[in-house]
Amino acid sequence: MSFLEKRSLLLAKVEVTYGTDPVPAPATDAILVNNPQVRPTGEVLRREFQRSSLSPLPHVIGLKESELTFSTELKGSGTANAGGAGDIPEIDPLLQACGMNPTFTAESSGGAGDGDITYNPVSSSLKSVTLYWYNDGLLHKLLGAVGNMRINGEAGQFGTIEWTFRGLYVDPTDADIPGGAVFNAEQPPILNGISMSVHSYQGAIQAFAVELANEIARRNSVNAATGVVGFLVTGRDTQGSMNPEQVKEATHDFWAKWKAATQGALSMTIGTVAGAKIDITAPKVQYRELTGGARDGVRIYDVPLTLAQNSGDDELALKFY
What we know:
Elements: E1 9-14, H1 26-29, E2 30-31, E3 34-45, E4 60-73, H2 92-97, E5 100-105, E6 116-121, E7 129-135, E8 138-154, E9 160-169, E10 173-174, E11 197-198, E12 205-211, E13 214-220, E14 228-236, E15 239-244, H3 254-260, E16 264-270, E17 278-287, E18 291-295, E19 298-308, E20 317-320
């Protein structure tokens, strides 16, 4: 039997108790993903002793964990938001397992559709997720998974999110892809006319990225069956990048703002239809460096960004409405 690349299914569900499988179901927990890849990570213990032979002895595997990577579309639920739990985006469990918690703002009156769900990073009570990946004929499970997310945007394209999760290792089992998977039917908005502004400047920006850059610690224990008892997000270096065309300093003073480590806001609105709109905002953005380049013969800057806090746990916000 051959496993086909296009035949797979990912399920994700937030855990109530860390590392305890909440049993995600196809009807409620399916997420559309692209290019999923699982990688077991084990510590290779070499048995190197002095002998008459130079040939190696067989190794053994010590600590074990699993890593799962994939990408999703950047999109909302598609409903004219009432700001309730029923309006969460499909990627909600993934966001929570990356340390982004939702705040629900109800609509001003019944049927107004002016509610929203906004995700901000948190520094305590972080969530974990159980992931099931059906790889045609194999089921891979990650328990107690936490991760990192990177939003990528390019003019005229759909926005995407790259995800990387680390979790407890579980032996894969033979399993067919279950039926009954239900996916959100909303199409992602195209990144045109998003009014992306950095330091109040809207330049000719072809692409951008925003990343939490979480620091993930592995907790080792001699009492755990695989030597690993869990994973924690212990820090983050929230950052981004963009590639605007070069302009005169009088138009936008890139160099002066870099030199002074000036802080300024970032904002954009993706989509135009109620229920499918996403705001990405950051209150304190700084230019890390300026690297020259070119795009179709036009000079550009490659600009790494620091997304710093304003008052804490507020360096990035994703608003779905």
